[in-house]
Amino acid sequence: MSAIKAKVEDAASSARAGTEKAKATAGEKMEKATTRDPMKKREAEQRKEDRKLEIESDERVEKAGHGPEKTVTHTVEE
């Protein structure tokens, strides 16, 4: 049961991250469309990329906290 719960939590994390990435892309496109300054356009693009990387990092950290501990135990039988 905990494996199913972990998969659901992972899917929720991925969906949340996808939404945030879409927001970053939309914001960058709006900023590029409303400005004529090439430097501001480059800055907007860089902020978008930075935000995407941060979102992906947060997603990995969040997924790492999900689910049961996966430990491997070996026993020696003689």
From TrEMBL:
Residues 1-78 are annotated as: Disordered. Pfam families: LEA_1. Residues 1-10, 18-78 have a biased composition (Basic and acidic residues). InterPro entries: LEA_1 (IPR005513). One of its GO terms (biological process) is embryo development ending in seed dormancy. Belongs to the LEA type 1 family. This is Protein LE25. It comes from Dichanthelium oligosanthes. The lineage of its organism: Eukaryota, Viridiplantae, Streptophyta, Embryophyta, Tracheophyta.
